[in-house]
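Bit of a strange request maybe. I'm writing a small parser for structure token strings and I need a real example to test against, not something I typed by hand. Could someone generate the tokens for this chain?
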Amino acid sequence: MVCNEGQHPFAAVVSCSDSRVPVELIFDQGIGDLFVVRVAGNVCNGDEIASIEYAVEHLGTPLCLVLGHTRCGAVTTVVSGAVLDGHLAQLVQKINDAADDAWREDPSLSGDALVDAAARCNVRRGMADLVQESHIISARVDSGALQIAGAIYNLATGAVDWL
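Reply from user aminoacidic:
Good idea to test on real output. This should exercise your parser:
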């Protein structure tokens, strides 16, 4: 399919790069409908935030979604306490904070329940990071030109749980 008329996505999505989370298929969207930024653990670090800034400032995208998912490998790695080297250690720092949030909210959690709770906390942190770390995004939110949403995609059922 040729699409040379420019892009006008109605939503920008920060999603995990997990191959089981095909954003356009999940939301039944076609070419040009979504501006998708994929990164392991759907973390909102500098490059991801810059990409969302581009979508909202230059493309006029009115909605930003941070999409996590159940059984996330990046979150599982953090929750299991695995020692990571290289750039992975830097990437998962915000997931460490989300895992701590989940544990503080319910210290009785463990295993898959803790992973899924940490994934939800990670989505909420990502939403907050977009606004707190970008004056472009925060100004659009304050003016009402941009809404920020969060959701978890359930790998087992295909359902999207909006936060």
